[in-house]
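Reopening this ticket.

The earlier resolution said the output was attached, but the attachment link was broken on my side. Pasting everything inline this time so it's all in one place.
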Amino acid sequence: MLYGLYIVTLHKETHFHLNRFYLLFSYIISLLIPLINIPVNNADKEATFFAVLETVQITSQSAFAIEKYAFINHYVIVFYLIGMSVFLMRFISEIISLIFIHRQCSIEANNQLNIALSKKQIAPFSFFKTIYIDKKTINEESQEKIIMHETIHVRQWHTIDVVFAELICVLNWFNPFCWKMKVALKETHEYLADLGVSEQTPEYAEYFMLLFRNAIGVQPGFANNLNKSLTLKRLIMMKKTRSSKLSKMKVLLAFPIVIVLFIAFSCNKNADKLKSQYSSNVISEKKETVNNTSNNDSKLSAKSNDDKTFISIEKMPEYPNGYNALIDYLSKNIQYPEEAKEKGIEGKVFVNFTVTKTGKIKNVTIKEKGNSLFDAEAIRVVSKMPNWIPGLNKGTPVDVEMTLPIVFKLS
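Inline output:
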């Protein structure tokens, strides 16, 4: 969204410093948004505790399904790591390439900068405080303009921008907008350097002929170089009438987008964490075999709505006769809807219910409504569950809101 706003409002404007700031701001905000959580005030709601039931697997087919999904999830992670490794190696290879270029250069100091004169043919570029030039093909007159161009890159610390963008792209190699933003950022750097040179050298034609003459050569991909994205639009941008100060106000459009993104990610953060903990509970036509693969002795966590922090409950609510009895109750009582079977429909239901201080079941609802047939069946069975043994916190019975994920799957 932030990159789209840039394309629509800013990339054709001549506010190059603002464009640079906006692109860097977009990178940083994109990293921060998933990490920020805006608490929702539930002060009016009586404090209850929240917990997700452990995994229930019914029928042998369900165990296979769980293993299948676990394999797919593992495959996705491996695929991501392979991709990241490839692009990380690419980044490292560019650093090694720069080291080789640097070693065969003779270094000269020039006004707090280093001028590296290469013995091999390279396209002029800069990296931090060093400017690399091919001393064989550049005469004194052109060298002055090239150094002028690259000095602007150095003085404005463009290398830091590019290295930062490269690392973001390594981590988000699968996201095309990260790469597009990196290209836009490098392009903006060139506009800034071209603008600086044009203010000191009004001969546009001569300056761009210089660019074309020195367009051939080797340089690391992450370095700032004279001829990056050498296109006609650079000349057009140099000759373009400067944008009005009022057009800078377009950047304010980013703030509503950032606020919406913050709220959207924050509101879904707890839900995403909850869903990541859900295990598939498969209710099939064949219920003779029950496979319970959960660890019933593991310590459960709960969440108190009054203070929004995870705490350990002294004793969680317990179904009469234990967890296996709960599995047995579900497998015997949940019926696959006939209409759904005839139509070959499968689905997933998240049932919320509260185990009160007295052990009664109340407030049976569907967290995320899906197929009405499955919703109705899940509510019917959960509502008829016998009283549970209530949960305890510091020796006192407490209300605990439970979530039971159920997957309806045809055998």
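Reporter confirms the inline version is readable. The two ends are 42 Å apart (CA to CA). The domain at 270-408 is CATH 3.30.2420.10 (TolA/TonB C-terminal domain).
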